Amino acid sequence: MRSVELFRDLQSEATTWRRLLHQNPELDYRLHNTAGFVAEKLASFGINDIETGIAETGIVALIQGEGGEGPTIGLRADMDALPILEESNKPWSSKTPGKMHGCGHDGHTAMLLGAAKYLASTRKFKGSVALIFQPAEEVLPSGALSMVQEGIMDRFGISQVFGMHNTPGIEVGKFGICHGPILASLDEFDIVVAGKGGHAARPHEAIDPIVIAGQVIVGLQTLVSRNTNPLEALVVSITKLNAGTSYNIVPAHAEMGGTVRTFSPALRDFAERQILASAQGIARGLGGDVELKYRRDCPVTFNHSEETDLAIRVARNLVGSASVNDKMSPRISSEDFAYMLQARPGAIIYIGNGSTAALHNPAYDFNDEALPYGIGYWVNLVETALAAGN
């Protein structure tokens, strides 16, 4: 097991990569410059097996170990930025107004590139490692789902897959992880409330969809507070509401949208069924009606037992047991790495970003002091999972 100090030699170079990526953010699947940079770096490390253009701009690169035959494990980094106007005021801030790396994917990419450079130069493992550079983590349809649907697990013979994400609020040099569900599923829905338009001075002649929408919003809160076990997590949030164009007109329709998060497939089914039943009952009771469009997006991100044990062991050997929280509370946010964990067993781990601004905040910036810890984790994970001589 290699000490984190060994990887500090790579920190300066990885910092340069990370800040260059930060200055030049790209969105969703349109990562042509980012993917070009990554592919160029991988080739410069002496990696010959590089496939580009997966899910438009995704990359998978294979490094063969010198320890003989063995399995292939996948390591995934996401590459896309967010449509946010940056306010970090760093010298390496985004050069493109309205786009920024507000979730640290620039850091994730730099850490996996650093690990790639080291592993390509040493190759002290058996089998192979598949480096997965993924587009479109922040948008739908998901980049992880697209890569899985394009067959990367079978094409590259990947038997296990691992992910890593930075998190503000955990000290640099520390890790967090848990077995089983670690991130929630993500569903989205739209409700169209149908009423009857009319003059605002004669509301009794209309069926006001705004009043109905307000009652629906209040009614949906009881799905969590009065209809589910308080020991089980379910979040139903209305995040969009739009109705009307004039001060003196009762509109005919109102539109709202929201999100559902849970760790339970049963509660996912319950939410889809009961959102319609509740909204429909309220609307019809007030003389209107509703139409629901419900979309299931990311599933629960589920850490598999054996692979989570491996991730914990590797992190502890790198930074010490006291710096690894292996019972981190699951988070109600979601992550499309879930699709890769549905396709193959694996685990995602969180790496500390220190006391920085939160993810998706205009003031956020990835902490470059975390780079050697992430590089070290990836290298030690490969050399442990694919130990030559086992």
Kindly report the name of the CATH homologous superfamily of the largest domain: Zn peptidases
Would you identify the CATH architecture of the largest domain?
3-Layer(aba) Sandwich
Write down the domain tally.
2
By DSSP, the count of extended strands is: 16
Rg estimate, integer Å: 24 Å
State the gist of this model:
The protein is an alpha/beta fold and 390 residues long. Helices cover 33% and strands 25% of the residues. It has an eight-stranded mixed beta sheet with strand order 1-2-4-3-5-16-6-15, sandwiched between helices. Strands 10-12-8-13 form a four-stranded antiparallel beta sheet, covered by helices on one side.
Key structural traits:
390 residues; alpha/beta; Aminopeptidase; Alpha-Beta Plaits; four-stranded antiparallel β-sheet; 10 helices; 16 strands; 33% helix; 25% strand
Q: What do these coordinates show?
A:
- This is Amidohydrolase.
- InterPro entries: Amidohydrolase, Bact_exopeptidase_dim_dom, Peptidase_M20, Peptidase_M20_dimer.
- One of its GO terms (biological process) is diaminopimelate biosynthetic process.
- Its cofactor is Mn(2+).
- GO terms for molecular function: metal ion binding; N-acetyldiaminopimelate deacetylase activity.
- By secondary structure, the protein is α/β, with parallel strands linked by helices.
- The chain folds into 2 domains: 4-182 and 300-385, Aminopeptidase (3-Layer(aba) Sandwich), CATH 3.40.630.10; 185-296, Alpha-Beta Plaits (2-Layer Sandwich).
- The chain is 33% helix and 25% strand.
- The chain is built from 10 helices and 16 strands.
- The strands form 4 sheets. Strands 1-2-4-3-5-16-6-15 form an 8-stranded mixed sheet, sandwiched between helices.
- Helix 3 (105-122) links the parallel strand 3 (72-78) and strand 4 (128-134).
- Helix 1 runs antiparallel to helix 3 (105-122), helix 6 (209-225) runs antiparallel to helix 7 (265-285) and helix 8 crosses helix 10 (371-385).
- It is elongated and about 80 Å long.
- The model has no long low-confidence stretch (mean pLDDT 97).
